Amino acid sequence: MKNINVFDTTLRDGEQTPGVNLNFEEKLQIAKQLERLGVDIIEAGFPAASKGDLRSVKEIADTVKNSSVTGLSRALTSDIDACWEALKGGAEPRIHVFLATSPIHREHKLHMTQEQVIETAVNAVRYAKERFAKVQFSAEDACRTELPFLAEVVEAVIDAGADVVNLPDTVGFIMPEEIRSMFRYIKNEVPNADKAVLSAHCHDDLGMATANSLAAVEGGAEQVECTINAVGERAGNASLEEIAVALHIRNDFYGKSTNITLNEIKRTSSLVSSLMGMQVPNNKAVVGDNAFAHESGIHQDGVLKETSTYEIITPELVGVEANRMVLGKLSGRHAFKEKIISLGYNATEEEIKKVFKSFKELADKKKEITNEDIFALMADEKAGDAMKYYSLETLQVTYGTSNIPTATVTLLDQAGERIEQAGTGSGSVEALYNTLEKIVGEGFTLHDYRIQSTTGGRDALAEVFVRMAFDDTESSGRGTDNDVLEASAKAYINAVNRVLNQRRAENQPKVANISTP
Ligand code: KIV
Ligand code: ZN
């Protein structure tokens, strides 16, 4: 059976999801889980974009051993050098160089002729090949490129040393029948096509990303590029879990396998959802909460008689059953630690000690602690980053239908000093945020405020996710608590800590005008 390579771009294209802003620790955590999931290639970031990106790609390349780690690069020597800096320590240094090929991009973005595009692409691949063991070239917007020209580009970059050639549907425009034909055309018409792996990278603007990726496989693609939970630019990328499970379940049709450990899928999905603050829709295929729920009486009756009547994927296949194991207030430190390890965390004893304390506090208020709760607790622990500039000491909010909502808050600063303030607002959260703003002394714009419960039940944890801008710095923050207002305060403080950490760590100009694809 032919194997399809799975190239995960959750940490690069997925991180381009509007409002998503992962810190270094979070990226590393996701990379380790992707390794456990069995992805062949992890695209860890865009090293030329910022010092922070370079550092996290480097750390991931130095840490991950069972997946090949790659970084994105424009067809520029400076970008390729930045990638080399980040990836040279990895087990199999691999670079992903891209250049647009479509007439729209050539004319309006690159201002290049066809000849200049080929020359630039070839030079970049040659330069990269002098350093990297594996070079991937992507013809950005391939699916809107004239086929004969696309074939010329593919032939030229393979001659220059490209090991993988990716033909992305950058804007999510193509239809399954067309992408299948496009891959067949390239396979048949490009004389050296057998010297490289062809890859598909589909976006979901018309809801076709999974179907198109699978059609590309039918057309001859041997690698698919995708993200967990289909996160990504605009409407997102092709969903890793959907493609991997479809290839497995419909093996009779495709006759292809992947190296994905399917029962790690749910765990990976929950981790990415929690760290990115992106809730998985209940009806999302494979990983949504309703993916295995049968509501109608006829369906329930059928499933009770024989599951295959209405269930083509079992929950166990994707690790949903394992996810239901719960801890409670009698669970000890050992069981807790085992759970953390089984969830893929590589936490230090110090971190386990701290999270265990939060776990015990939570277990006093909540009967069953699920994996989702633990993801939230761990995310809180990891989210503060290296330095906690502010932490919440006390909080009191007064609300009444005929009163002005008022908040009184005490924070501890880095030096352990107490800072107390009070403020009002038109609602409880506004009163709270006005007060926090007074303490932090920095004006902010709240772009997004979202609240969700980690599980069902009245005692469920509230998880608040905020996206805010402080001057020119965008930040997200997350906070979890039994109480929605306390979770809201924690999310705000987390966003502030992240901005301050970012400013400290980078202490560098924001990379201007970098246009990511
Ligand atoms: O969508 C796209 O074209 C990309 C390329 C860099 C592969 O993300
Ligand atoms: Zn993309």
UniProtKB/TrEMBL annotation:
Its cofactor is Mn(2+). Keywords: Amino-acid biosynthesis, Branched-chain amino acid biosynthesis, Cytoplasm, Leucine biosynthesis, Manganese, Metal-binding, Transferase. It comes from the Bacteria. Its EC number is 2.3.3.13. Transmembrane segments: none annotated. Signal peptide: none annotated. Catalyzes the condensation of the acetyl group of acetyl-CoA with 3-methyl-2-oxobutanoate (2-ketoisovalerate) to form 3-carboxy-3-hydroxy-4-methylpentanoate (2-isopropylmalate). This is 2-isopropylmalate synthase. The gene is leuA.
